[in-house]
Amino acid sequence: MAETRERPLPDHVTTPLLTLITQQALEEDYRSVAQRRSLRPGAEPPRTRMLAVAALLVLGLLVGVAAVQNSRNAAIQDAGRATLVAQIEQSREELSDTQAAIADTTRENRGLTDRLTGLTTTREATTSRLRRLQVATGYLPVTGPGVRIVVEDKPDAGERELVQDADLAKLVDGLWEAGAEAIAINDQRLNPLGAIRNVGTAVHVNTVPLSPPYTVRAVGDTRTLQADLAATTHGAEFFALAQQIGWGVDVDNVGELSLPAARQRRLQHVETGTAEQRSGGGVEEGQP
Amino acid sequence: MIAALGLLIGIVLGLIFQPDVPLGLEPYLPIAVVAALDAVFGGLRAYLDGIFDDKVFVVSFLSNVVIAAAIVYLGDQLGVGGQLSTGVIVVLGIRIFSNVAAIRRHLFHA
């Protein structure tokens, strides 16, 4: 300790801080003043304590003001807290509303997705149906494997022995029946509105006169088309007739046939759309 | 007796008039109160020791209040107001406790 040294350090240096605070809790001045007073006994008259009372009054004032201030602040803080709580609750409600909206939207979205899937499927089906119809009606030029049948009149044939519309129609009907997807005769594509007709001795297809030999080209399955054609009633009749009269009939499988589109005829009486759509539009049905 | 009366009157005045403390001084009020309490307990202990002197009391009262507030103000300016006010409260609290302990020994001889 400091006492063992040659020059001991003063107490206020060596004393730990907390101990110092505790020791000097009472103001040193009280002691020193009292000491001075005791050195001169009776020198000073007992003083009035108005100063001390004034100081206490100030303390009371301080305490009172602090208390008032604190309670005011507490009120403000409470109000702030209440406001915050209200805001939190409101935000929670908004959050739950939003979450409900999200759930609704998600459900709606799922429904719409399902509908979209359904519509896509329908569209694909319709598109493929449209494609089939376009091929079957000769709206589109087509390419594909198929069978080429060349029918030639017998040399020095009489008028009754020429190839006629009904014979070619039989052959075409047999081909349709055997599964042909598109048929053309001498580059005249067959379609539902076209016809195979005799005018005099010449065969007209789609009102275009053809001259023999007649080349019938049918797009279809090359593995089965010929056999199926021979098996159909119309095909069998045609081949029997050809053999009987002596027409030259040449049947070949062809890897790739290119069939032109049919000549487009202007539709005169047909309007697009279903009856409901038209009644909604208020369009009068056209009279010829 | 007169001293207790003064304290009471001060409290009542403060509660009645509710003077508005300037916003800038508001944080220093509690520290000032604690410092004043320290001076008051010191004075009470001195009174019981029989060495009370009102001049010393008033000077210690005022200097305690002003210094405590000044330290906290300085701390606020430096950004460590909270820590410094904690330090002031700790020191003043220790002093108050030891003074009150001395007063207790005087009053109850225990």
TrEMBL record, chain A:
<protein>
    <submittedName>
        <fullName>DUF881 domain-containing protein</fullName>
    </submittedName>
</protein>
<comment type="similarity">
    <text>Belongs to the UPF0749 family.</text>
</comment>
<feature type="compositionally biased region" description="Gly residues">
    <location>
        <begin position="279"/>
        <end position="288"/>
    </location>
</feature>
<feature type="region of interest" description="Disordered">
    <location>
        <begin position="269"/>
        <end position="288"/>
    </location>
</feature>
<dbReference type="Pfam" id="PF05949">
    <property type="entry name" value="DUF881"/>
</dbReference>
<keyword id="KW-0175">Coiled coil</keyword>
<dbReference type="InterPro" id="IPR010273">
    <property type="entry name" value="DUF881"/>
</dbReference>
<feature type="coiled-coil region">
    <location>
        <begin position="81"/>
        <end position="108"/>
    </location>
</feature>
UniProtKB/TrEMBL annotation, chain B:
<keyword id="KW-0472">Membrane</keyword>
<keyword id="KW-0812">Transmembrane</keyword>
<protein>
    <submittedName>
        <fullName>Small basic family protein</fullName>
    </submittedName>
</protein>
<dbReference type="InterPro" id="IPR009709">
    <property type="entry name" value="DUF1290"/>
</dbReference>
<keyword id="KW-1133">Transmembrane helix</keyword>
<feature type="transmembrane region" description="Helical">
    <location>
        <begin position="56"/>
        <end position="74"/>
    </location>
</feature>
<feature type="transmembrane region" description="Helical">
    <location>
        <begin position="27"/>
        <end position="44"/>
    </location>
</feature>
<dbReference type="Pfam" id="PF06947">
    <property type="entry name" value="DUF1290"/>
</dbReference>
<keyword id="KW-1003">Cell membrane</keyword>
<comment type="similarity">
    <text>Belongs to the sbp family.</text>
</comment>
<feature type="transmembrane region" description="Helical">
    <location>
        <begin position="80"/>
        <end position="98"/>
    </location>
</feature>
